[in-house]
UniProtKB/TrEMBL annotation:
SUPFAM superfamilies: FMN-linked oxidoreductases. This is Alpha-hydroxy acid oxidase. It comes from Polymorphospora lycopeni. Its cofactor is FMN. It is an enzyme of class 1 (oxidoreductase). One of its GO terms (molecular function) is oxidoreductase activity. It comes from the Bacteria. Keywords: Flavoprotein, FMN, Oxidoreductase. The lineage of its organism: Bacteria, Bacillati, Actinomycetota, Actinomycetes, Micromonosporales. Its EC number is 1.-.-.-.
């Protein structure tokens, strides 16, 4: 699917999707860290009637997946987020609407997908609160505050190429600020400049508590890696955290999520839900995430590959592949359900049990 997407996508859009920050060490390490996890399969367990059904972010799901928030999907397909969300609705998988989505939250919710609204901490608090109100009115099931972007990571592919969004690729929920403005040139990314104007790098735990206080929706914090931050997230009233390094797009050199996950799960000690993203590329990775203690995963780039390669049917194909792989892997690991998957033992390749 990745190869098919690469063949149909402009160089700018491909760099935007595929790129990480700095030397892309963290981006590469995300995949390697999942690869290094080894599962200890159980045997002679009846898996004839196995199911991957569970609840995620308060929602019933057929597989423990949700769509990661990803900006500007009309860059990859004219229908953008609406196509991805339609496929998510058909798969019964929740769709997290990026604050930088290129379609409105109302249009996305109209697909029938269960939605969660992702937020960045904006300088314009009026606009921030307005978006919470719109998310509530559109029927979003939760809010997801991304806490790892005081500013955009140094994405060298975008800077070198002088990345500029096409005029049609707008932040539809932020008044439609379009591409092309403040045009990029070699050494500057227009997306990074746009973000710098909008995002407030002063976010603190007191602000997180304030966000908690202005909505009755469940609050998810995305971008947690340190177990102390996980504990602070619980103290601030988070209902869930996402162990994430933003797909290696923020701090280059940050720990891989498969490495960070177990300590976060320990620190949370069942007090809220723990999800993980960054490097999930198939059903076996999902099973590994469960075995490391996650309740479920956010799927990122692979869904954008499906979108670019084939619109909504392409996204459906990616859901189907991950789901088939997960069901097969659960059978082979002796897991009749998600709870048993979460009890699987793991080791790290080259290390002990
Ligand atoms: C093209 C692209 C756009 C993204 N936009 C957002 C965003 O708007 N908000 C956010 O919280 N995370 C964003 N992310 C990060 C994803 O939510 C997720 O953490 C990341 O893609 C996981 O890594 P993976 O895709 O390599 O598995 C974006 C990622 C990509 C690839």
């Amino acid at each position: 699917m990745r190869a098919a997407a690469g063949a149909t996508t402009t160089a700018d859009a491909w760099n935007f999707v595929e790129g990480g920050s700095g030397g892309e060490h963290t981006m590469r390490e995300n995949g390697l860290a999942f690869d290094r996890v080894r599962l200890l399969p159980r045997v002679a367990v009846d898996v004839a009637g196995r199911t991957a059904r569970t609840r995620l972010l308060g929602l019933p799901v057929p597989v423990p997946l949700a769509v990661a928030p990803m900006a500007y999907q009309t860059w990859l397909h004219p229908d953008g987020e609406v196509a991805t969300a339609a496929a998510a609705a058909a798969a019964g998988v929740p769709f997290v609407v990026s604050m930088m989505a290129s379609r409105t939250v109302e249009d996305i919710a109209a697909t029938g997908a269960a939605t969660v609204m992702q937020l960045y901490w904006l300088r314009d608090r009026g606009l921030f609160r307005e978006l919470i109100g719109r998310a509530e009115a559109a029927g979003c099931a939760a809010l997801m505050l991304t806490v790892d972007v005081p500013l955009l990571g140094r994405r060298l592919r975008d800077m070198r190429g002088g990345l500029v969004r096409p005029a049609t690729v707008v932040a539809a929920n932020l008044g439609g600020a379009g591409g092309g403005a403040g045009a990029g040139r070699a050494g500057r990314s227009e997306v990074a400049l746009h973000t710098k104007v909008l995002f407030d790098p002063s976010l603190s735990w007191a602000d997180v508590a304030w966000v908690r206080s202005v909505t009755r929706l469940p609050l998810v914090l995305k971008g947690i890696l340190d177990p102390d931050d996980a504990a602070l997230a619980v103290d601030a009233g988070a209902d869930a955290v996402v162990v994430s390094n933003h797909g290696g797009r923020q701090l280059d050199g940050a720990v891989a999520t498969a490495t960070a996950l177990p300590a976060v799960v320990d620190a949370i000690a069942g007090r809220c839900e723990v999800l993980v993203d960054s490097g999930i590329r198939g059903g076996v990775d999902v099973l590994k995430a469960l075995a490391l203690g996650a309740a479920g995963v956010l799927v990122g780039r692979p869904l954008l590959w499906g979108l670019a390669a084939g619109g909504a049917p392409g996204v459906t194909r990616v859901f189907d592949l991950i789901s088939e792989e997960l069901h097969e892997a659960m059978a082979l690991a002796g897991c009749p359900d998600v709870d048993s998957a979460r009890r699987l033992r793991t080791s790290v390749a080259g290390g002990g049990c």
